[in-house]
Amino acid sequence: MGELKDKAKGHAKEAAGSVKVAAGRATGDRKMEAEGHEQKARGEVDKAKGAVKGALGDKV
Q1: Helix-strand-coil percent breakdown of the chain, rounded to 5?
Q2: Structural domain boundaries of the chain?
């Protein structure tokens, strides 16, 4: 079950990060854009964590 939860959390973080990046670019707010890139990266980590849990059977 943890696999799906981590993957879903990762997708949500990536989506929110993409919105921040777009908003930052549109408004010229470099800080918001950077925060968006950071959030997207955290989402990718969560998705990878979910994939590892899936491969190891949630024993991680």
Answers
A1: 90, 0, 10
A2: 2-56
Helices (H), 1-60: 2-27, 30-56
Q: Extract the tokens encoding 27.
A: 């408004």
User: Phi-psi bin for 58: left (phi > 0), alpha (psi -120 to 50), beta?
Assistant: left
Model pTM?
0.82
What is the C-alpha to C-alpha distance for residues 19 and 48, in angstroms, rounded to an integer?
21
**Beta carbons within 10 angstroms of residue 22's beta carbon:** 13
- Supply the mean pLDDT for the chain: 91
Dihedral angle at the C-alpha atoms of 42, 43, 48, 49, nearest 10 degrees? 70
